Amino acid sequence: MTALTQPRVLTFRRSVRVARVAIVAFIVLNLVAVQLMFVAAGPGKNVAGTVGRLLGLYLALAMALQLLLVARLATVDRAFGMDRLTTWHRWTGQAIFWLVLAHPAFVLLGFARLDGISFLAETVNLAKQLPVLLGMIAAVLILVIVVLSIRVARRRLSYETWHAIHLMLYVVVLLGVLHQVYEGTAFRVNLFTQIYWWGLWTFALGALIAGRLVVPMIRNARHRLRVAAVVEESADTVSVHVTGRGLERLAASAGQFFLWRFPGHNGWWQVNPFSLSAAPNGRSLRLTAKGVGVTSAGLRELPIGARVYAEGPYGAFTAAHRVRAATVLVAGGIGVTPIRALLEDPALTGHVVVLYRVRDAHDAVLLGELKNLADVRHARLHLLTGRTGSDNQPFAPERMLALVPDITARDVYVCGPEAMTSSVLDSLRRLRVPRRQVHAERFRLAG
């Protein structure tokens, strides 16, 4: 198989490379700026206080970068994909967690040594100052958010509850900015530092407001999305067809997802990321969801004509990121939704092989549509069933190679439960499928 050489694909790749370089340069320049500000502030009165001040600067930068990740900027999303950005969101959150522990610890230790009192006494003493107290409250809220985001705790929370808890991030940012302005020594070193920090926070908050509020409101006012039909696909799975005005201008692609709200039917805080389960045609959008949460389980009760509020489209799980002429689409469970949309997408040219993993054939949602699409485009469809065990490893390297002998010469798109996706990615690594040919969409989302 030969690599793709269409002019549109090459132009897209070039724009992605430029965006990636610009984003990396932005991060590096900010790291350098923070280090220069630390040096300009001069040494502290003791080592502990100096270390605490440096950690505070990196904490402020990490929080600003986290806001930019939560903003879901289209350029960043297109360059790296929401799945990778979600991983960065988690890493940044972990960095913030440790910085929140270390920054006040070193600062308090430094002041305690200067004042000749105990660490606890210094904590009580500084807490009486409002700017310090605001910082302490922000630190406690961050710890709560991070602890509840740990995988063990996360599994016990519904998506709606987890999302509501993360709204505390905005309170944390407000408290953090106030703490930095009134208490941060490095903030007031000179005019440059003040311009830098005000500029960074303005940019981060502006991106957040624009990306998560202004742009979605404009788009929803323009397109006026409404529920056109609700179709039961199985006992626990439902498809919602959405129509509106001028949907051809929405610039959505097969493989992408939206954050969906249904005002009047659910509370405004109830939001879920659902992938498009059909390629956008300019006239309607379709999402298909399994009833595992409050919002998804209630979709079958949506009345025709109900208002729809959508944020997006998001995700780089699209045909535009292909580098080879032939493709393998791997789906597991309800992860079939973006795979089904990709199979329908005219932009996905070349020969296609579909691997659909379910426990039982009765669980294979949208299987009839997949078969019809596979027949139309002369694709091969393999339904992989049965309980995974020593005698049934459908995604073991040798099994995948038997199903798709030329898999190393194809792009591979994977979407399904975490365990399945990890198994497929591990096999692809062992088969030495080039990393740039592997595209994964996991069931997780930042902010």
Poorly predicted sequence stretches spanning 5 or more consecutive residues: none
Taken as a percent bin, the fraction of beta residues is: 15-25%
Radius of gyration: 25 Å
Number of strands: 11
Largest sheet: 5 strands, parallel
Helix content: 40-55%
Structural class determined from secondary elements: alpha/beta
Instruction: Assign an overall shape.
Output: elongated
How many structural domains can be distinguished in the coordinates? 3
SSE topology string: HHHHHHHHHHEEEEEHEEHEHEHEHE
Distance between the termini: 39 Å
Mean pLDDT: 87
The total count of helices amounts to: 15
Order of the strands making up the biggest sheet: 9-8-7-10-11
What does the oligomeric state look like here? single chain
Membrane topology: Multi-pass membrane protein
Protein name: Oxidoreductase
Transmembrane segments: 21-42, 54-74, 95-112, 132-152, 164-182, 194-215
Keywords: 2Fe-2S, FAD, Flavoprotein, Iron, Iron-sulfur, Membrane, Metal-binding, Oxidoreductase, Transmembrane, Transmembrane helix
Describe this structure in words.
- With 447 residues, this protein is α/β, with parallel strands linked by helices.
- It folds into three domains: 208 residues; 91 residues, Elongation Factor Tu (Ef-tu), domain 3, CATH 2.40.30; 124 residues, Rossmann fold, CATH 3.40.50.80.
- 52% of the residues lie in helices and 15% in strands.
- The strands form three sheets. A five-stranded parallel β-sheet has the order 9-8-7-10-11, sandwiched between helices. A three-stranded antiparallel β-sheet has the order 1-2-5, with no helix packed on it. Strands 4-3-6 form a three-stranded antiparallel β-sheet.
- Helix 2 runs antiparallel to helix 4, helix 2 packs parallel to helix 10 and helix 3 crosses helix 4.
- The longest helix has 34 residues.
- Its cofactor is FAD.
